[in-house]
Amino acid sequence: MNNRLTSALSSADQTEPKLLAIASGKGGVGKSVISYNMADHLARRKRVLLLDGDFHTGNLHLLGNVNPDYGWQDICFGRVSFAEAVVSLADNFDLLASAGGNTENAFPDMPRLAAFLGDLRKLAKDYDYVIIDTASGILPHTNLLLHTVDEVVLVTTPELTSISDCYALYKVLIGDNTNILASLLVNHEDREEELRYIRRKFTAITDRFLNNSPEFFGNLGYDRALVEAVACQRGISDSAPQSTINQHFAVLADHLSGQEIPESFNPETINSAPVRPI
């Protein structure tokens, strides 16, 4: 587990919310499902706002089974207030959806976006955490968002193009700010040897060409229970509370909130043996 993340996001100072972005260089890696379930579990300990940062095709409202009238873009354009745009999903768990739709609604210009992001901590002052599911790929709007948060979690799968696109995104982030806090989460993989290989290869490439590497955030294996939870528009904690994948999300939330974790779980991984380089 990323020790920098733990200190950055679970510090004693809760005068303003901690901002965490979930990002990927490639679509289809499970980023939105991870964001939703991470926020759902964290909301059982803290006050959480989940923000759908996908400009055109935001779908977190589908996972939450709600139909918001407004999105955060409407706040940028001054159409509604922050309170009017936020919808409740559960106790301590709210959603700020994406307006999506046409270009006018989906893409505020950079000054408007910068103003919104600059005010976000103040607007979300009643929350402990803001978890942002970003648009996939490398876009100027997304790049600005990623440089606003406390930490970026880069999601990849073992598939080669996913790893390549994740590297490309990390390269852009580091190129803009070498001090950015970024970490790597491998989805759809829980085999120790494969995880060790992916991490070593990714670290070797980033160290060689960028002289900088992300911390290892953890991993999540494939679980049919999570697929079924998405299909019925429910969080895994409600759909399959006894499932292995639900336990792993709970451990991830424990880390983020600074809570003690069961001794049976290794704090450096989510659901596998340690994978730190030998």
What report would you give on this structure?
An eight-stranded mixed beta sheet has the order 3-4-2-5-1-6-7-8, sandwiched between helices. Helix 2 packs across helix 13 and helix 7 runs parallel beside helix 8. The chain has a single domain, classed as P-loop containing nucleotide triphosphate hydrolases (Rossmann fold, 3-Layer(aba) Sandwich). A hairpin with a 2-residue loop joins strand 3 and strand 4. It contains 13 helices and eight strands. Helix content is 43%, strand content 16%. With 278 residues, the chain is α/β, with parallel strands linked by helices.
Task: From the structure above, extract its key features.
single chain; 278 residues; 8-stranded mixed sheet; 13 helices; alpha/beta; Rossmann fold
